[in-house]
Amino acid sequence: MSIGPAPEDVAPLARYRRAADYLAAAMIFLRDNVLLEEPLRPDHLKPRLLGHWGTCPGITLVYAGLDRLIGRTGADVLLVTGPGHGAPANHANLWLEGAHERFDPALTRDRAGLTELVRRFSWPGGFPSHLSPEVPGVIHEGGELGYALATAYGAALDAPDRIVACLVGDGEAETGPTAAAWHSTKYLDPATSGAVLPIVHGNGWKIASPTQTGVMSDDELTALYRGYGHHPIIVYAEIDYTEGAVADERLGVAMDEAYDRITGIQRQARSGRRPERPAWPVIVLRTRKGWGLPAELGGSPLEGTFHAHQVPMEDVAEDPEQLAALEAWLRSYRPEELFDDGRPVPAVLAVCPPEERRMGTNPAAVGGDLRRPLDLPEIADFAQEVGTPGTVTAGATAVLASWLAEVFRRTETTRDFRIVCPDELESNKLTAVLEATDRAFSWPVPGSAEHLDPAGRVMEVLSEHDCQGWLQGYLLTGRHGLFPCYEAFVSIVDGMVNQYAKFLKLSREVPWRTPVSALNYLLTSEGWRQEHNGYSHQGPGFINTMLTKKAETTAVYLPPDANTLLAVMRTCLASTDRINLVVAGKNPAVQWLSLSDAVAHCAAGASVWAWASHPAAVQERADVVLACAGGVPTVETLAATEMLRRDAPELRMRVVNVVDLVSLRTPQTHPHGLSEDDFRALFGDDLPVVFDFHGYPSAVHQLLHGRPDPGRFHVRGYVEEGTTTTPYDLLASNGVTRHDLAIAVLQRARGWASAGGDLADRYARQRDDILTHVRRTGQDPAEITDWTWGLR
Amino acid sequence: MSIGPAPEDVAPLARYRRAADYLAAAMIFLRDNVLLEEPLRPDHLKPRLLGHWGTCPGITLVYAGLDRLIGRTGADVLLVTGPGHGAPANHANLWLEGAHERFDPALTRDRAGLTELVRRFSWPGGFPSHLSPEVPGVIHEGGELGYALATAYGAALDAPDRIVACLVGDGEAETGPTAAAWHSTKYLDPATSGAVLPIVHGNGWKIASPTQTGVMSDDELTALYRGYGHHPIIVYAEIDYTEGAVADERLGVAMDEAYDRITGIQRQARSGRRPERPAWPVIVLRTRKGWGLPAELGGSPLEGTFHAHQVPMEDVAEDPEQLAALEAWLRSYRPEELFDDGRPVPAVLAVCPPEERRMGTNPAAVGGDLRRPLDLPEIADFAQEVGTPGTVTAGATAVLASWLAEVFRRTETTRDFRIVCPDELESNKLTAVLEATDRAFSWPVPGSAEHLDPAGRVMEVLSEHDCQGWLQGYLLTGRHGLFPCYEAFVSIVDGMVNQYAKFLKLSREVPWRTPVSALNYLLTSEGWRQEHNGYSHQGPGFINTMLTKKAETTAVYLPPDANTLLAVMRTCLASTDRINLVVAGKNPAVQWLSLSDAVAHCAAGASVWAWASHPAAVQERADVVLACAGGVPTVETLAATEMLRRDAPELRMRVVNVVDLVSLRTPQTHPHGLSEDDFRALFGDDLPVVFDFHGYPSAVHQLLHGRPDPGRFHVRGYVEEGTTTTPYDLLASNGVTRHDLAIAVLQRARGWASAGGDLADRYARQRDDILTHVRRTGQDPAEITDWTWGLR
């Protein structure tokens, strides 16, 4: 096949773009006279002008170019648009190709639909000014910049016939997450996965300054992308708009070259000879910002400068000169040639690919339609035997890993489950999954490397941003996944998860967006057992971040042992349209619940552990409640309980474990919230509660709002004290050893304030003795490290 | 000067490294027999082996190389060590050069000091296993990876004689923040700032996988760094440890070349001919991971593989074979040649630079010693005239900008104040600072660019990570700064600020760390006025993140108008060892307080606004408290107050404004916490409170723990509802319009539940009428947009 568009194909592209550019501009400015059938008057304008023009013509240039490529090749192309504020361009193209019409009968390709489209943009109750889940074909919002590229790679994984075209804005290209994502090809298997075609939209300007891409020389850009492992193709489209067809022609040549390179790499890899360092193409498109605008406005330069970024003529309503400039600009697209009574003329529509290949209706953008529920293995086959609570030990994540390995085995042909992880799979004791799959890696590796294979489905890279972006793209295109991470470092993706939670929240409100699989975090290497790595590795703040999200889209689980982790993870991997945060330990620890008890506990969200409570306190009047949430807090709370059972047998303690953290919230504020009666059955109305929490106490304080007398909850947790030391010393510095808890219980239990004084003093002395031992020997005493719930 | 070390200089370097490597290894393993004067026995070992060996020998190779360079040139070199878990290497070098001794008399360079050093590492109460503020010469922790490079550039800014050597681990090199930071040279002025010498420590492996740097070919690496704008120098040091001097020789050649290149660029720039695209050097060092270890252990490969990452021999206490291997390995350094009764022999010490040039005692690492307080302009000269509250309008950030411009003018010679900002200075209405300085930019720019100059002190880049890292390095080396940011996107640096807060918390506990200037955020373009950009731009979660930090290191301010913003910012720019979060509006808004009232309000933290309250409710019994925090909530609350004054004149309302958010906390939990009496004077003991909060209601809920009956606080705020719409509609979707607030007040005020019913219904109808108007016209009605506190 020859490279580049035939001469006769170029003029239609430029004409098509005139239609799309006109529509995009009209969306920003007009609410009436949308086809400019009469002279433009101020009352035709929207009263508030909201929108970003600068990047729009470039987006349409690429959209049209991809349409041509699709038409020529029949390729299955999904578009990820980084500069989400160029939404008017996307809308214009989506309307022209009929994608809008398909999802919304009000957006027909006629006068009524065109009018509705133009009016609805940036209008209350209409389309937002940025891309969002309401927009067909969209799997990435682009408000917070930087994540388009990783998302695109995630969408391409395990979809061998898909090409994900990814428009990267040159503002966005300055972000760290984008910079890191260029290395994604080192983890992409050309045989079993599809391809990403990145197109850097270099219009040279951000809001008010030149971009890095804009000031870099061609030599620098070429070197940079070659260094990233790509084959850069620079396209010069900084030409006059009236010569626009030249841009279409040049971009067409580049796209054909890129396509041939992509299919060449794939052909080679799929014939069994994977190329050693496949240099996938990247197109660097140099355009004029706000292409097509007048060169200047009121004596100031406009087209090709940062002044074109947002609404390029802000005073059109008041300034007749600007109004005239706007009208002249809009008329320069000659809408009368492009629309017939509001219907795009056939010559315009001819550019759009056949219906089943249009980017706006690509099924991959509605992942829920493609999603098949995982065939999850029975957790019973992997559960720990737990007889008497607290008498056996196991590492929760290691138990989970065997189950996850089976998930990998069952998805070997469907290839719709992946784990992403920032180089911590082994450290997090999940190594067993490598019995079922390998780490994905496509570049040549040293002989001493282990468990690496291009087709592996564990993706380890030292970039939480890559992990998050890949997983988002994977899930939104209908697949499943898990993100194990060091607890303290997952906050690196706080910004990304903020945006993803918003995407999910809105998706749930869009009728045609069917549910996608939950985004599941497994936070381990939790701070309490980062006594060796020290203070920087201790940080449970991601829980607080999750608690700011819309209740329907989030859940936070703190399974205290292996069987509860299995039960929780089964729920998570089956759930949809949610972000599940699971915090679980990797170290060998005391086990509490049989599988059936664990399942019941998880279903309840929080339960009284009767076997650990004073028999009189389980349902009746207790002196005090000992509550706990999280693995280490559960161990310490139960150890405190044991001490107190032995030393103060009259003390009527009720032990409550919370596994589903948001069950503490009222049922009015979270669907998991315990009913008033259930909450009262656990915590009473006015009982003193000593609550040992895995994370910051503030997280629990905020959840208790609306519950009876929250002031009675004395919450302990991580209070930002830590260093490299022993586990007990780390607990002590935060006031949450078993001794601290027992003392707190004695001080607060009804009727024990003075009766418990001597005992509390004794516990304080024991605590000090242990700390002295720690300082002297460098380790915790055996009574702490080897403790099990032995007294029963 | 000739390039590279003379042959006679190389052997001493290798010998010096043997001493440092021995010490680092000893730190990980030994607690007795630290000089191996007797055969190694299990009881000489630490009971818990904690530490990372893999990167240590490479760190020392670089440390020694820099020492030689310093000796040759007299350069002022500060070291930023990215792989903070290589702390044993840093400790060894710091001890050898005497930096440890200078800060801690127990760490003398003799038997006692050496024993103490070895024992203290990774020991409870001793040195953590990672770099931390307790370690001399350190301005970067390196637990959460990715921030060394940006920090280094920040330290080099405005310090023309300083070279910041920056060791970038090849794990860290995979992170987005590191990738973005390579472009920092485009913002660095060779005339007025110093230089960074990045050294990529490519040992090829992360915890369990090859690194990107490790698998990239020399061609790829060369292209990548050239693309970033650097001049890469690859050093092959993958040689046998016994041939180590060859590595010293090669690294020496590279360092000399790099140094000459750095000084050449600087000379040229300082002679008035700034080079157009200065290609600063970067050294890429290829070493063997865990260099110097045995090639294998128990049949498994060790040196040069990921198995060398952490403690390379884990079972030494139990496995006699491993113990023998450890002893043989340690003895391979021949400690008896290197230490004389624990004192480093003169031939070893000869490598260390003269005392005033040692990296561990570089004054820049103790920024508080260098810091000069800013000569802050009088805020009175910039304040808004505010007579009757609520009758004039102004944009708070624009007012602040004039004051900040004056700060820039007053620091023109000291050059110790900078603003970092992700391309939002203009958007955030801070443009007036560009009257006093320019945007820093060192690459050639198009003619239509405005306000760009290499020596400018505003740094705009579309990378929050760059901004944060630059500012951290700048502050920790004794300077001042401000980080204005879109509120919703500052969460991008959540992880970085977590770590910086930890660094500050620990620094405050280190006696020789004198206070550094506060890190000041100015969050503007707040969500309530991102009605145009939409849902992705609405997110006040950074407040919640800040509230998880140690109370002493954080403050959160929500100034409701321009004068309070001035008063708050004056406090912030004068404060030390803290992170100040300031949230303020950029849009023209109603002004409330005269400057003197604003100053008093800020000093109090929260006050009753008597002029807005029912006279009987100011001190005496009120029916209800209307509390507010934040600019938009203050406007809506006062508007609600006005409606209620008019329509329910008997309603005894007390209006409270909170400017210092953490004043809500108890004085036991935050130094800014209001006393019990002061809190009661505002909110009573049991008064109903309707609190309109700028951010998530959960932030206020958690702060109220420990206050009387927190359940009576009905907190409204952002509940994650939003899109592109009008400001009123955005408020309505979150239930916080003036009408919603007035209704909530009527429902809760004592004795008004039924009396206020009709009025509440009327307000609900008004609200619905306005929303109908909004949907129809696309804008808020004038009664909302033009509202001032007019009825008085």
Automatic annotation (TrEMBL), chains A, B:
Domain Xylulose 5-phosphate/Fructose 6-phosphate phosphoketolase N-terminal span(s) in chain numbering: 7-368
Domain Xylulose 5-phosphate/Fructose 6-phosphate phosphoketolase C-terminal: start-end pairs: 586-789
GO MF annotation, one: aldehyde-lyase activity
Biological process per Gene Ontology, one example term: carbohydrate metabolic process
Cofactor(s) this protein cannot do without: thiamine diphosphate
InterPro entries: THDP-binding (IPR029061), Transketo_C/PFOR_II (IPR009014), Xul5P/Fru6P_PKetolase (IPR005593), Xul5P/Fru6P_PKetolase_C (IPR018969), Xul5P/Fru6P_PKetolase_CS (IPR019790), Xul5P/Fru6P_PKetolase_N (IPR018970), Xul5P/Fru6P_PKetolase_ThDP_BS (IPR019789)
Pfam families per the UniProt record, alphabetical: XFP, XFP_C, XFP_N
Highest taxon, organism lineage: Bacteria
Record keywords, A-Z: Lyase, Thiamine pyrophosphate
SUPFAM superfamilies in the record: Thiamin diphosphate-binding fold (THDP-binding)
Family affiliation: Belongs to the XFP family.
Descriptive protein name: Phosphoketolase family protein
Organism, as annotated: Nakamurella leprariae
Classification lineage: Bacteria, Bacillati, Actinomycetota, Actinomycetes, Nakamurellales
